[in-house]
Amino acid sequence: MVAEKKMAPIVSVKVMSFNIAHGLGMDGTVDLEKTASVIEDSCAGIIALQEVDRHFSARSSFVDQVDWLSRRLGMHAAFGATLDLEPEAPDMPRPQYGNAILSKYPIKYFENHLLRQVITPIGHNEQRGILKAVIEVKGSYISVYNTHLAFKDEELEVSINELLDIAGNDRFPRIIAGDFNAAPDHIQMKKMKKEFSDVFLKMKRGDAYTYPASYKNEAAGELLKPVTRIDYIFMDDEFDVAQTAVMDTAVSDHLPILADLIVMKTKKLTEQPTVSELQKA
Q1: Strand 257-263 vs strand 239-246: parallel, antiparallel, or unpaired?
Q2: What pLDDT does 106 receive?
Q3: Which CATH superfamily is domain 4-279 in?
Q4: Less CB within 10 Å around the terminal CB: N or C of the chain?
Q5: pLDDT digits over 136-174, tens only?
């Protein structure tokens, strides 16, 4: 059993959620340096990324984007594959695609949960998952869940139930971030908001649209603007939110979102949790 003592000093952390579309910008080019620059400019300490490639295919030049971004930004990294394919040759790395968490703070433990698929005859049947990381921020521990859910109603319902179940029993303050592929008035998002606070609604910014990213196509004379919000950061009642923002950029088809969070109720641990205790968090 880990001993606990009095309340720790208030801990604040800036969190980002960003579907990077494997670095594919609205101009049709893949440029991971532009993605890294957006993350760097945000000054976020914990970043939840969706649609990240690892040696996946020629579309991203077979780059390990998790390793590349981690090195470029000088951050710790965790990855959870939702697609994990056989390599073309025994000496080649496995092509993978999924969710990643980058952190300025030490990642003490992480695990990947594959969600149950609901196969339908019409629709994109893609494996989905939830990446959980326990992160030590200034002596306090935070659980971060990163996900990218299906837009099919049948599967979204199943996934939300699984997500709430997985995150339901956690000893540390919880943040849930990701691309939910559902607008705020969707019944499943209402279910989420019964258990966790939507940071943008908390700041009375329900109109903080994230999709599609703004882009002016000069050749086609087309101007795209965000029309819906499908990317979210949720927090439990151990947090308060000081500020939120949507970054305007065309480096992906989604806009990155930010939240400055304050841990209100965390207790400082007198001992480092064991791996077993982190697994049970």
Answers
A1: antiparallel
A2: 98
A3: Endonuclease/exonuclease/phosphatase (3.60.10.10)
A4: N
A5: 999 899 999 999 999 999 999 999 999 999 999 899 999
Bridge-based pairing of strands 11-19 and 46-54 is parallel
Detail the DSSP E strand segments found in the chain: 4-7, 11-19, 46-54, 76-84, 96-103, 107-114, 129-137, 140-148, 174-179, 197-198, 215-217, 222-224, 231-235, 239-246, 257-263, 267-269
Pairing of strands 231-235, 222-224: unpaired
SS3 260: strand
CA dihedral (13, 14, 17, 23) in degrees, to 10, reads -120
> Tokens representing 209?
């649209």
pLDDT by residue (tens digit) across 29-50?
999 999 999 999 999 999 999 9
Hey, what amino acid is at 88?
E
Phi–psi pair at 187, nearest 5 degrees = -55, -35
CA proximity to 178, closest of 108, 234, 133, 125: 234
Distances (CA, A) of 116 to 33, 110, 119, 154, 160: 34, 20, 10, 11, 11
Q: Classify the C-alpha dihedral 53-58-59-61 as positive or negative.
A: positive
Task: Return the structure tokens found at 145.
Answer: 């869940």
Give every CB contact of residue 174 below 8 A, 6+ residues apart in sequence.
142, 143, 144, 145, 167, 196, 235, 236, 238
With 90 as the cut, is the pLDDT of residue 260 above it?
A: yes
Contacting residues for 122 by C-beta, under 8 A, at least 6 apart: none
pTM of the model: 0.92
**Residue 244 corresponds to which tokens in the numbers above?**
């939120």
Strands 46-54 and 267-269: unpaired
Predicted local distance difference test score (pLDDT) of residue 40: 99
